[in-house]
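Morning run. Coffee first, then this:
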Amino acid sequence: LPCDLEIASTITRGSLRIELGDVRSGPGYVLTVPAPLGADEPGVIRVLRTVGSLKVLVDDAPLVPGPPDLAGPLDVVIRSNPGSLVGLDRIVFFGPSAVELETVEAARAAIETAP
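And here it is:
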């Protein structure tokens, strides 16, 4: 389902680790954002998920290579490594709209009832 995760952070030392999906059993992806990020104001990490696509932007620059598309539920774990100096200023999740949810549910129902 389409969604948008936005993390505003300042990373002075070390790194911020963002785990998407099931990184132990798969499918999953680990994103490591190293210092420095943000100075006068926090940097912004965005995870954009649409149907068939998962993109990561750090301060509006796309991560290359980007993460693989991860189907199914997308668990998110955010942590820093020991010794890191990381500030999390804002975490915002924008989920799918009601119309998008209805469309997906209708498509799932059609698949389940198809011969």
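The mean pLDDT is 88. Good start to the day.
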